Amino acid sequence: MARAVVTMPAQAKRGEIIEIKTLAQHPMETGFRRTQTGELIPRDIIRRFTCTYNGVEVYRADLHPAIAANPLIAFTTIATETGTLTFQWVGDNGYTVTEIAPIRVE
Amino acid sequence: MPTTRREFLIFAAVSLAAPAAAEAQLDPNLAASRKAAFQEALRRVVGDAQVRRGRVKLQLPPLIDNGNSVPLSVAVESPMTAADHVKAIHVLTEKNPLPDVVSVALGPRAGRASLATRVRLADTQTVTAIAQMSDGSFWSDSAEVVVTLSACLEEGLI
């Protein structure tokens, strides 16, 4: 059910700016839609995305219902040292997904 | 001035049809409350500070067939050093049920101040991106978009 994909280079030169694309599988239910019987469908969205590089936060996004289903977030960071990047999506109804990607810096 | 037929059509649609169509779709009370919500969201983001145009580049397709998934990207001109960098990027809409779209917190470690995502747009409207710099100044860019299929139309929101 809860899955996410991260696309980024596995290795980079020190100081290089690397591009990261992340995609999480999530319906991003807005909380404004109704069923055929007129009942409001409760909101169910991802609230926050964070990217940490060896434990240091480098990018954070607060998402709102206006983000399309299966949120794509693309951004950049500087390759500073060999280690891991941790991506975390936290949302309504206890939704938590964590992805870890290693990077080798020369 | 537009030269090709395609450019002319886009120009005509954006400049003539957009404001009239947008006003026709919203009932006056709803339009006023959305506007108030947008102003409040803007105040929450920038406080009393002045927002200047420039340095921010907001990219959206001018004509959107399906408002459910619209590619949006923001890039801010900044050296992204410890002394001078972008602290936050906010995207706001005028006529969505909620004005906030996304708020990003970043710093010099990001390398470039950029954001790319996909958003929902409920109506033909103006989308605004605001960047907060490390010196406390705010810069913005707006894009007018024409939405043919609203993200919320089937739910009878508009």
Brief characterization of the structure:
The complex is a heterodimer of chains A (106) and B (158). Chain A has 106 residues and is an all-beta fold.
How would you describe this structure in keywords?
heterodimer, A: 106 residues, elongated, B: 158 residues, alpha+beta, globular
How does this structure look, described?
The complex is a heterodimer of chains A (106) and B (158). Chain A starts with a strand and ends with a strand. Chain A has a single domain, classed as Immunoglobulins (Immunoglobulin-like, Sandwich), CATH 2.60.40.10. The model of chain A has no long low-confidence stretch (mean pLDDT 91). With 106 residues, chain A is mainly β. Chain A is elongated, with a radius of gyration of 16 Å. Chain A is built from no helices and 8 strands. Chain B has 158 residues and is an alpha+beta fold. The N and C termini of chain B lie far apart (33 Å). Chain B is 25% helix and 39% strand. Chain B has 2 helices and 9 strands, in the order H-H-E-E-E-E-E-E-E-E-E. Chain B has one domain (5-155): SoxY domain (Immunoglobulin-like, Sandwich). The longest helix of chain B has 21 residues, at 5-25. The interface between A and B is medium-sized, with 29 and 32 residues. Strand 5 (56-63) of chain A pairs antiparallel with strand 6 of chain B.
The count of helical stretches of chain B stands at 2
Would you count the extended β strands of chain B for me?
Answer: 9
- The total number of structural domains of chain A is 1
Number of β-strand runs of chain A:
8
Overall shape of chain B? globular
On the 0 to 100 scale, the average pLDDT of chain A is 91
| CATH class membership of chain A | Mainly Beta
Uncertain regions spanning at least 5 consecutive residues of chain B: none
Number of domains of chain B: 1
State mean pLDDT of chain B (0 to 100 scale): 83
Helicity level of chain A, as a percent range? under 10%
Instruction: Report the portion of residues of chain A in β strands.
Output: over 45%
Number of helices of chain A: 0
Compressed to H and E, one letter per element, the order of chain A equals EEEEEEEE
Question: Roughly how many Å is the radius of gyration of chain B?
Answer: 17 Å
